[in-house]
Amino acid sequence: MAEEAILGYLATSEEIPDSGQFASQHGFQHNDVVNVIKSLHGFRYIDAQDIKRESWVLTDEGKKYAADGSPEFQLFLAVPQEGSISKDELQKKLEPSVFKIGCSQAGKNKWVDMGKQVSRKVQHVEDKVKDLLVRIQKGEALGKDDINSLKARKLIVAQTWKGYSVKKGPNYAPTRKKVATDLTRENLQRGDWKELEFKEYNFNAKGPPAEAGHLHPLLKASIGHYFYQLHLAYGKYVTVKYMYCFYEYQQSLSWETIIFARIYNLGLPFWHPLACMELTFLNLILYSGETTIEEHISSAGVSFELSHVTLICAFRCFFEEMPTNNFVESSFWNFDALFQPQQHPARDSHDTFFLEVPSTTRELPEDYVKLVKRVHESGGYGSRGYMYDWKREEANKNLLRTHTTAVSTRMLYALAKQPFTPKRYFSIDRVFRNESVDRTHLAEFHQIEGLVCDKGLTLGDLIGVLNDFFSRLGMSKLRFKPAYNPYTEPSMEIFSYHEGLKKWVEIGNSGMFRPEMLLPMGFPEDVRVIAWGLSLERPTMILYGVDNIRDLFGHKVDLSLMKRNPICRLGID
Ligand code: PHE
């Protein structure tokens, strides 16, 4: 309406000199007129010049007097025409502020005699203050003296009024042409696209951030499939894991997709605390300290501002990650190769989930199986063994792996076949135990596993590595307690002092692999392997203050937890 009025007016007149007057003449709100002017100006239908005017508006007090009359006038009316009224009586008739101001102003105006008794001095007065205020309300201009007196009584304040004067612009037309925002199928069929005027693209406009990248804890295992191992510039071996995870695009994610998703601001990822912790551990394990993640990314030829360093994690491998993509394992690799006797309680179905289908493994390395059988039955390499009948059927049984040490074992077996080279391996993945579920236990959880294989390693090296590792996580008070594992000697449980809980908390288990495990694999006698297995959940619960593991992992997880925990690198910065 205002738009038609403005364009219509300009069809016959040169100029609209004042948008304020135009609005009141045509019965529009000035605000509406201003909005239309801005929009028409944007499309150059009109040219608009700013007009600024100082104007006066009533204060709340001013508005009250404009409606009810000034206090002096109200007081004057309350004094009887004849005779007098006592001051106390008069006070009762009026509001306290009206009485107070009224007394002084009516006295000053010589309208009344103020004493203990109050009487009129004149019979007729005019409420000039009210009149002036009403005139200001109507937008009339007042003389300097009047303005000053109202200003002094704080009944008016100055306000800058903004409006426009308007003339035709270069694209002037009496009505606005509608610009098309989309090219539709109908436009093409009708052929009217040839005449259509299209709205220009605004390449600077930001799209709405997509709700994406929330990492569900259960998704983590599947992300394992999208584990990227990339050779970037300089032939560096780089692992990229836990990147932008668009659930529906997982299959097609590529390194470039992820980076471009970031550049085009397709939403910030929110991370599950377990994923944050996993990243943190990855960082600790892999980050060599020689090059930064940013350098890796820029060496890939892509430059962009990396606000969350861990958003896309590129690590130069210091430790190599072990392939942990097999949840199903044979008892042989999970237990026997680790010199774990077949009668060991952990091998009971109360502790381990055995598979019904397929219930047994298809193949095992026969030569090695013979050596393992021998070391269990009669020892060797200076050991007496367990002295029992080792049964192949037990070793064949399939199970859900109870620890990732099964994978370490496979890796060491493969390594022992090569001419000896020192190695560092790690993994972070899921394991399963047939345990009753409570606040701190689940039947499946995640293990961080690590090992260093070299000649001449000692228990001191193991303690040193673990101290270094945990102090980077902000856990610098560690204690080691002698423990027993069938596959390590010596073995140590790792405890960390938790400042918040004010107690020592067990965070992992470690040791040096026994000769009964390493020598049948074929390692030279002087090769030592220090190894550790840590829970991912335990430190996560401690660091995030989660006291029920079911709030962290499993079907009861509150998904908003991930949104509340943006990506982070604990204890590293
Ligand atoms: N496998 C052990 C566990 O599950 C951890 C461990 C790994 C201990 C390596 C020693 C050496 O608790």
UniProtKB/TrEMBL annotation:
GO terms for biological process: phenylalanyl-tRNA aminoacylation. The keyword ATP-binding applies. It is found in: Cytoplasm. Gene3D superfamilies: 1.10.10.2320, 1.10.10.2330, 3.30.1370.240, Bira Bifunctional Protein, Domain 2 (3.30.930.10). Its EC number is 6.1.1.20. Residues 422-566 form the Aminoacyl-transfer RNA synthetases class-II family profile domain. Keywords: Aminoacyl-tRNA synthetase, ATP-binding, Cytoplasm, Ligase, Magnesium, Metal-binding, Nucleotide-binding, Protein biosynthesis. It catalyses: tRNA(Phe) + L-phenylalanine + ATP = L-phenylalanyl-tRNA(Phe) + AMP + diphosphate + H(+). GO terms for cellular component: cytosol; phenylalanine-tRNA ligase complex. Pfam families: PheRS_DBD1, PheRS_DBD3, tRNA-synt_2d. Its cofactor is Mg(2+). InterPro entries: aa-tRNA-synth_II, aa-tRNA-synth_II/BPL/LPL, Phe-tRNA-synth_IIc_asu, Phenylalanyl-tRNA_Synthase, PheRS_DBD1, PheRS_DBD3. It is an enzyme of class 6 (ligase). GO terms for molecular function: ATP binding; metal ion binding; phenylalanine-tRNA ligase activity; tRNA binding. CDD domains: PheRS_alpha_core. PANTHER family: PHENYLALANINE--TRNA LIGASE ALPHA SUBUNIT (PTHR11538:SF40), PHENYLALANYL-TRNA SYNTHETASE (PTHR11538). Tetramer of two alpha and two beta subunits. Belongs to the class-II aminoacyl-tRNA synthetase family. Phe-tRNA synthetase alpha subunit type 2 subfamily. This is phenylalanine--tRNA ligase. It comes from Gossypium australe. The lineage of its organism: Eukaryota, Viridiplantae, Streptophyta, Embryophyta, Tracheophyta. The gene is farsa.
